[in-house]
Amino acid sequence: MAQFDGLTLDVLDLGGQAAFWRTALGGGMLRQENALQLRIDRIPERPDAEILRLHQVESLPPDDARVHVDLRLPGQRPTELIAAGVAVIRRPGADPWYVLADPEGNEFCAFPATDDRPPGIFELVVKCESARDLAHWWSVVLGGRVDYEGEAVSVTGSPGFPWDYMVFDPVPDPRPSRNRVHWHVQLRDESPADLLAHGARLLAGPESDADGWLLADPEGNRFHARATG
Fold first, then answer.
1. Domain 2-227 in this protein, CATH class
2. Which pLDDT score is estimated for 211?
3. pTM for the whole structure
C-alpha cells in the first residue's frame, strides 16, 4: 500500500537537536523545509529513506520511548554521542546495549560494535500491546516478512525500508499519549482509501497538514501519508 519515507521527531530546540542528530547519524545534509521543520537527509553511504525531520513544537509529551530507534555504534562506547550531549541512562549489563537519551530526553538504544557492519540506525522499535497483530498490519502496508523472536515480532524486507528491522515489542499498558517520534509513508495510490479500509484512522486531511494525511494505526501510532508525485 505504501513505502516508508523517514521519521519525524518533535523537538523544542531545532538547532540543538539538529546538531545532535547529525552527529548520531554520522552527518547528512541539513535543510529547512519550513519555519518549524528541519530535515536531515542520509549520508551517501546510507539508504535513501534514512530521513529525519525535526519538527518544532511548543511543548513535548512525556517521553516513554514507545517509538524509538536503535543505533549500532562505531566502537564499543558512545564517546562521540556523550560529547554531543547524550545522557547515559543505562550501561550494558545483562542486556548488551546502552540506553541513552538525547539532549531533550528522547531515549534510544545503542549497541556496541561486534563486527564490521557500518554504524548508524539499524532498526525502528514500536512498543505496543499486540506485537503480533501490529506487525502483521504493517507488513500488509509496507510489504515484507514477519519474523518472531521471543515475544517481539519484526517486519523485514519491506521494499524501501532503510533499516534491517521494524520491531514490534509488546508492553502491557496502552499508549498513554502521542509519540514524540512518528513516521512518513509514500502512498501507492492518490488517496489513503486502502489504508483506511485496512483499519487506519484519519486524524487530519491535507487541508490542515502540509505533509499529506495524518493517520493513526490500530494502536494509535501517528504517521503521515502522502501521495507520490
1. alpha beta
2. 67
3. 0.93
